[in-house]
Design a protein that fits this description.
With 526 residues, this protein is α/β, with parallel strands linked by helices. Helices cover 41% and strands 15% of the residues. The protein has 20 helices and 18 strands. The chain has helices spanning 20-30, 45-53, 66-80, 92-106, 136-143, 153-168, 206-218, 234-244, 257-265, 297-307, 317-331, 335-347, 360-368, 389-399, 411-417, 421-426, 442-451, 466-473, 483-495, 514-517, and strands at 15-19, 35-38, 59-62, 84-88, 111-117, 146-150, 175-180, 187-191, 224-225, 248-249, 274-277, 291-294, 353-355, 377-378, 405-410, 432-437, 476-479, 501-506. The chain has a 6-stranded parallel beta sheet with strand order 3-2-4-5-7-6, sandwiched between helices. α4 (92-106) links the parallel β4 (84-88) and β5 (111-117). α8 (234-244) packs parallel to α10 and α12 packs parallel to α19. The chain is globular, with a radius of gyration of 25 Å. Residues 1-12 have low confidence and may be disordered. Bound molecules: thiamine diphosphate and magnesium ion. Magnesium ion binds at residues 410-412, 438, 440-442.
């Protein structure tokens, strides 16, 4: 661990003289952080200087826009399941990063935002300081569950530890720390060995396990719906599914996975729901479940499996294959999307990461792309925020250099963060992006055609030549017009490990996926 040059160790707690910024960076390193995704500015200069001095332990990846910094951190968090950090200036910097922070909240992603502030004594006085925003702390508090302002080096060490504990306790999610422009550089003695707080123990309710196991053993046709908490319990979920011969349903992950099913499909007295949630408030949010199990999915499912050891059921494999084939025949309506998805799946290795977008191929991928490993299908969850894809995928690729990451996007979504092609070049991130170019906000256009008498407004796009655009940054780029050409282009792209590739695929309007995404009501019928 790096020591301050002017260290004056005190025998009591091994305190050394350091700035608030240095204490913060030391604490991040102590929590296993190896990268800060960031965009600098005068409010955070001492923080960047501390990052410079600690560059043997922690890298700084600078982006071209604050939304990029936050999305990169989000992508890295979703791809690894580990906390990630981004830093921005106050006011506009914070707001520029806010859509990504909002998505991190919706996806339960542990992303720590380090946000600058105007000078400590001016906060709340409306004096018109650079980047001043009314009640910044109040705005942040609406976006994350844990936030605080750092006021001294000693406090920095404690607050960083508390933030990391908060991000991992109960329902995971983002956190934020503010620090004033005149506090980052202030020196005081602080702990040379920053503490890492232990996570509180997670007792398992054995009565509830027995109740759940009894109900599952008696259930006629159990179904497992997997959300974000199941990501790190894939083996356990597979074993439970085998024991119960229960199909596993997954769509996207994050908050409310099950709540949105309840509202869409309907519920009734006959439908007994057993919930496993990290957040004790979640089970009863929509409707009271038959059994609520609170804690981490892995250990809870292991206890359920143990309680169901003697259970045996005849195989439902043939039935499931028949159902799947029937659904697949209906989905053949999406043939143009399927052609491209098959090409992608054939080239993207099973451990490669697919980053979804709010585009036609993305909607189809959520229904049709086979996914083999946890954390290899990243989707923006219920925010479904257009434009998250490219920068999020960059973060995923930066954090997982060992596997290829593929970003798919429409022409509309791509230009939200395509400026980060510069970041991919600057930091040699070998991300591949496919831009499906239909010259439109195609989804909006189709709705206007079908539901608004073809009164077309605000959906046609004036696009750059995407191949030349990417090349002008220094990226590799080519155009593919068919699934066969796409396969060949992907093969070339995934071999490249020193920089980014763009593949443009010109496409016509695509068939609507919405009848498959909004499934009809099946419960609670009169
Ligand atoms: C942040 C945000 N703004 C607006 C929307 C609304 N929206 C959903 S899809 C879409 C059009 C997407 O266009 P494109 O990326 O080209 O994909 P396409 O539908 O053409 O395949 C828009 C504007 C959104 N989901 N998120
Ligand atoms: Mg489009």
């Amino acid at each position: 661990m790096r020591k301050s040059k002017h260290s004056t160790p005190s025998p009591a707690d091994m305190a050394v003289q350091m700035t608030t910024a240095e204490a913060t960076v030391d604490a991040l390193v102590a929590h296993g952080i190896d990268t800060v995704y960031a965009l600098p500015g005068v409010h955070n200069d001492p923080l960047f200087d501390a990052l410079f001095k600690a560059s043997d332990h922690i890298r700084t990846v600078h982006t071209r826009h604050e939304q990029g910094a936050a999305y990169l951190a989000l992508g890295a968090a979703l791809a690894t399941g580990k906390p990630q950090v981004y830093s921005v200036v106050p006011g506009p910097g914070l707001l520029n990063s806010a859509a990504a922070l909002l998505t991190a909240y919706g996806m339960n992603a542990p992303v720590l935002a380090l946000i600058g502030q105007i000078s400590q004594s001016a906060i709340g006085r409306g004096l018109g300081h650079l980047h001043e925003i009314r009640d910044q702390a109040g705005i942040i508090a609406r976006l994350v569950d844990f936030c605080a302002r750092i006021r001294t080096p000693t406090q920095a060490v404690t607050l960083v530890a508390q933030a990391f504990r908060a991000m991992a306790t109960g329902r995971p999610g983002p956190a934020a720390l503010e620090c004033a422009i005149d506090v980052w550089g202030r020196s005081a003695p602080a702990s040379a060995t920053p503490p890492v707080l232990p996570l509180p123990p997670q007792p398992i309710d054995e009565d509830a396990i027995r109740d759940a196991a009894r109900r599952l053993a008696a259930a006629k046709r159990p179904l497992i719906v997997a959300g974000g908490g199941a990501q790190d319990a894939a083996a356990e979920v597979a074993e439970l599914s085998r024991l119960l011969q229960a199909p596993v349903l997954a769509y996207r992950r994050g908050r409310g996975v099950l709540d949105s099913r309840y509202t869409q499909w309907g519920i009734d007295q006959e439908l007994a729901v057993i919930r496993i949630d990290a957040d004790p408030e979640e089970p009863e949010r929509f409707a009271r479940p038959a059994v609520a199990l609170i804690g981490d999915t892995g250990p809870i499912v292991r206890h359920l499996i143990e309680a169901l050891r003697a259970h045996h059921r005849p195989s439902r494999r043939a039935e499931m294959e028949e159902r799947q084939a029937k659904m697949r025949r209906r989905l053949d309506k999406l043939a143009p999307q399927i052609g491209f998805l098959d090409a992608i799946r054939a080239e993207l290795p099973e451990d490669g990461i697919f980053v979804d977008e709010v585009t036609q191929i993305g909607f189809a991928a959520r229904l049709l792309l086979p996914v083999y490993k946890p954390r290899t299908f990243l989707s923006p969850g219920y925010q479904d925020n257009l434009g998250w894809g490219y920068a999020t995928a960059l973060g995923a690729q930066h954090a997982r250099p060992d596997v290829p990451v593929l970003s798919i996007t429409g022409d509309g979504g791509f230009l939200f963060t395509s400026n980060e092609l510069s970041t991919a070049i600057r930091h040699r991130i070998p991300l591949t992006v496919i831009v499906f170019n239909d010259g439109a906000f195609g989804n909006v256009r189709r709705i206007q055609e079908e539901q608004f008498g073809n009164r077309l407004i605000a959906n046609d796009l004036a696009n750059p030549d995407f191949v030349r655009y990417a090349q002008s940054f220094g990226a590799e780029a080519e155009r593919a017009r068919t699934p066969q050409q796409l396969r060949a282009a992907l093969k070339r792209a995934f071999k490249r490990r020193d920089g980014p590739t763009l593949i443009e695929v010109p496409v016509p309007a695509m068939p609507s996926p919405w009848e498959f995404i909004f499934m009809p009501r099946v419960r609670g019928l009169k």
